UniProtKB/TrEMBL annotation:
Keywords: Iron, Metal-binding, Oxidoreductase. PROSITE patterns: FE2OG_OXY. The lineage of its organism: Eukaryota, Fungi, Dikarya, Basidiomycota, Agaricomycotina. SUPFAM superfamilies: Clavaminate synthase-like. This is Fe2OG dioxygenase domain-containing protein.
């Protein structure tokens, strides 16, 4: 008699998408890029024109037409929601060891915000790639149970990242695969999907922490893909140094460049400052679930500027840069791990102890540590 095969998957706890805010906020005028044009004749050229200005001046833009369906996104959000509802002991079974800069695994909110008695309100789970290099990385049972859905989604996100790297290489007049080769999915890298949950806060707590949920920062890697979020809270710093809100675009992906891409382009591509603040009044009671992909260069990729004719023409690359040898360079892995350790270790968020002009530095790589 054939045996009955039980589906080993736990039931998911569906994520109910909150209604967008009705508040009229000072929205960032982000360019909307329709990635479905990519494979059409002349499509890449058109996208390059649209992206050119955004990557240099805003460092943020929004993608639509990514080919990822709303159903796929919602399913991942529901898996994420199910994960965060697990008992704490279960979530603690695979923790990120930030003391060595390893951000893979679960992080619970234990740190105090600045010098207050209010703790952070964000839990995160960072899921590494599904390639042989990461077979032995510990994963939660729940994540393993949904591996047949998370693994293809993980790789699918990289295919979006891949298209962006081709467009950016064209902008830089580099061979089209220059950046793709430095961000291969099948090479070891610190890429991950992040599930993150911000728990709603009381008005009095928000007041104590000056409404700041996640302090101003630049991302550590190359590109960040953030599934557009109905709960308004993300703000970016405009070219005029003003905080602007990021608007919800259903099914869209908010993209931004980070430090390693800025290093590879000597600052031509902007690693943009952003932060998370308390949502407007009509969303104040909502938990905020997020889904992000962080793309980082291959672990051994040297952090030296690309030999881009644009960077040379515009004076970004000097004779000194051209003399820099890859074997003497800081690798992407060294930079990213050092930054994770620096930012996430400790009992309080860093803004408490440092002056706003503090820099974080690994050898010759320097970024501003945080932004008020
Ligand atoms: O939650 C968000 O909207 C942004 C989070 C973020 O900036 C980060 O995790 O680096
Ligand atoms: Fe960020």
């Amino acid at each position: 008699m054939p045996s009955v095969v039980n589906d080993p998957k736990p039931q998911v706890d569906p994520w109910i998408k909150p209604a967008p805010t009705n508040a009229s906020l000072d929205w960032a005028p982000l360019q909307i890029i329709d990635l479905s044009k990519y494979d059409l004749p002349g499509g890449k050229e058109e996208l390059v024109k649209e992206l050119q200005d955004s990557v240099r001046h805003w460092g943020f833009w929004t993608i639509v037409g990514s080919g990822i369906s709303q159903e796929q996104i919602d399913r991942q959000l529901s898996i994420a929601n199910t994960f965060f509802k697990l008992p704490l002991e279960e979530k603690r079974k695979v923790r990120a060891d930030v003391s060595v800069g390893n951000n893979f695994g679960y992080r619970e909110p234990t740190r105090f915000v600045k010098n207050t008695d209010v703790k952070e309100n964000m839990e995160t789970l960072n899921v590494p790639k599904y390639t042989p290099d990461y077979n032995s990385v510990p994963r939660h049972d729940l994540i393993k149970a949904f591996e047949d859905e998370i693994a293809p989604f993980h790789r699918l996100l990289w295919t979006v990242v891949r298209k962006l790297f081709v467009l950016l290489a064209i902008i830089l007049e580099l061979p089209e695969d220059y950046l793709v080769e430095r961000h291969q999915y099948d090479e070891p890298s610190e890429d991950h999907i992040r599930f993150l949950m911000y728990h709603a806060r009381s008005a009095s707590e928000n007041k104590k922490i000056g409404d700041q949920w996640l302090g101003g920062h630049t991302d550590f890697g190359s590109l960040t893909l953030l599934f557009s979020q109905p709960v308004a809270a993300l703000q970016i710093r405009s070219p005029d140094n003003e905080w602007k809100w990021v608007k919800y675009i259903p099914g869209g992906i908010t993209c931004n460049a980070g430090d390693t891409l800025s290093f590879l382009t000597k600052g031509y591509i902007k690693s943009t400052i952003h932060r998370v603040v308390s949502p407007p009044a009509d969303q104040a009671n909502l938990d905020r679930l997020g889904l992000i992909y962080f793309s980082r260069p291959g672990n051994s990729v040297p952090m030296i500027p690309a030999p881009s004719p644009v960077l040379i023409k515009e004076g970004y690359i000097t004779g000194e840069d051209e003399k820099q040898l890859p074997e003497d360079a800081v690798t992407a892995f060294e930079y990213v791990r050092a930054r994770v350790k620096h930012v996430l270790e400790g009992k309080a968020t860093r803004d408490a102890q440092r002056s706003p002009d503090a820099v974080f530095q690994v050898s010759y790589l320097k970024v501003q540590d945080y932004y008020v």
